[in-house]
Amino acid sequence: MADLPWIAADLHLHTVASACAEPEMTPPAIALRARELDLQLIAVTDHHSVENVQAVRQAAAGLGISVLPGMEVQTREEVHVLCLFPSMEPAVQWQAWIWEHLPNLPNREDFFGPQRVVDAAGRLLRKNPRLLQTSVNLSLEEVIARAEGFGGLAIPAHVDRPRYSLFANLGMVPDGLSLAGAEISRHLTAAEARARFPQLQGLGLIQSGDAHRLSEILRNTHLLLREPSLEEVRLALQGQQGRAVRCP
Question: Number of helices (H) and strands (E), helices first, in the chain?
């Protein structure tokens, strides 16, 4: 373990592809803020979209920041799940599959806000007219199993929050559901989370910003990795092969 570096990461942030994100959440602004915080690894996790991931990767090129493709999925039970992928190809395939399980409804921009697809400089390319701020017709178990089938890593998001979370909506980790790890919010420590939710005992925990504005990006998760890759993150969450994770 002494030969491996600790890598600072925030694995949950939104761009302007998410209707709920502030207009400042453009690829260049995110990349510069991550560099200011000395983050070496981030994940772009817009609501049911990977459309801005490549733009963030391009904006972060040369800054020493690795960017994992990801998505925040809202299950049938309204539980939010981070789905991270090793590269763009499975992430794009995952998006196509998820869109098959979203209701075919138009986005209400006046109510939810615009869903902007932008380039690496933050210039508007188009708006996604489809409603993304809603639930898929898939259970928590189905989302986690299928994400893993696409080569991804599925992590229940902000499990301590009073809405859209594993414990608020289901009250427990369902029997037979195997989790690689879980995410907690900035509002409590890992020790407090494990005391409040005993089912988190033994799970690797990350603490992410769930950033919808630049000031919310966090440098609270540190991962002991050989390299900033998805498989290394998985090993760290599981405490395997000398990898580890720590957060406040």
Answer: 8, 11
Tokens of 41: 């690894």
- Cα 75 vs. chain centroid, distance in angstroms? 14
Query: Within 13 A of 146's CA, how many CA atoms are on the CB side?
Result: 17
Mean pLDDT split into 10-residue runs, the chain, 248 residues: 87 98 98 98 98 98 97 98 98 98 96 97 98 98 98 98 97 94 97 97 97 98 97 98 96
- Polymer length of the chain: 248
Q: For residue 173, is it within any domain?
A: yes
**Does some domain include residue 185?**
yes
Is residue 144 within 8 A of residue 152, CB to CB? The reply is no
Phi and psi at 188, nearest 5°, equal -155, 165
Domain count, the chain: 1
Does 1 reside within a domain?
no
Query: How far is Cα 72 from Cα 58, in angstroms, rounded to an integer?
Result: 21
Cα–Cα distances in angstroms (integers) from residue 7 to residues 65, 66, 202, 223, 238, in the given order: 10, 11, 21, 5, 16
What are the tokens at 40?
A: 């070496």
| Domain annotation covers residue 67 | yes
Residues near 224 by beta carbon (within 8 Å), at least 6 away in sequence: 1, 4, 5, 6, 7, 236, 242, 243, 244, 245
| CATH number, domain containing residue 136 | 3.20.20.140
Answer whether 0.85 is exceeded by the pTM: yes
What is the residue range of 240's domain? Answer: 6-246
CB burial of 44-65 (b: ≥16 within 10 Å; e: otherwise) equals bbbbbbbbbbbbbbbbbeeeeb
